[in-house]
Design goal:
Radius of gyration: 28 Å
Mean pLDDT: 79
Shape: elongated
Strand content: 35-45%
């Protein structure tokens, strides 16, 4: 019976020689990354410049890859009313670790207050301010810092509250009016003029 020994060294050497000019990619993203805090700070700076109020922005804990047309969803918190909005940051230009981006803030907050009250009840002024912010944001295209007079409001149809908010053109006066109240379910609605 004969036995043969097969030498693997020349085959391995041949494989290495054939593959030496090839470049492989095994699903590893080689785009530069930045800490989420850097993006959060720049986004907050940009929004504060536009609306005059600095929001809190949270983009998570993972490094963010810098690639054109790549988006990251962050959470924006309005410091005045405490409303939380999903915010999409899309990178429009990337040159190494230098980048520019667009910001799109959702029109509706994740934690919008429900306009409810017991018959004859008073609600905190913060609830009215939050509802006014919710009503004005889609029209204005940014989240305004609405401030209303008083500490609470009686939920009575026709009741009004004097409010205001800063805009790029200066302070804007607004009036919030209780327009309806369904005592059977405790729901009310407002109008902002």
């Amino acid at each position: 019976m004969r036995s043969r020994s097969l030498t693997l060294v020349p085959i391995a050497a041949l494989a290495v020689t054939l593959l030496s000019g090839c470049v492989f990619s095994v699903g590893v993203n080689t785009a530069p990354t930045v800490p989420p805090e850097d993006v959060e700070t720049l986004a907050a700076d940009k929004l504060e410049e536009q609306v005059g109020v600095r929001p809190t922005i949270d983009c998570g804990d993972d490094e963010i890859a810098l690639e054109v047309d790549t988006s990251v969803t962050c959470l924006l918190v309005d410091p005045v009313a405490g409303l939380e909005f999903d915010t999409v940051i899309t990178f429009t230009e990337v040159d190494g670790t230098n980048y520019t981006f667009d910001i799109q803030v959702a029109d509706v907050p994740n934690n919008a207050p429900e306009p409810t009250a017991e018959p004859g009840a008073f609600v905190p002024i913060g609830d009215i301010e939050a509802l006014a912010i919710r009503a004005l944001t889609p029209t204005l295209g940014y989240v305004p810092e609405v401030t209303c007079e008083g500490t609470e409001v009686a939920i009575v149809v026709g009741n009004t509250v004097a409010c205001s908010y800063p805009s790029p053109e200066g302070t804007v006066a607004a009036v919030v009016t209780i327009t309806s109240f369904d005592a059977s379910v405790g729901e009310y609605s407002i109008r902002v003029d």
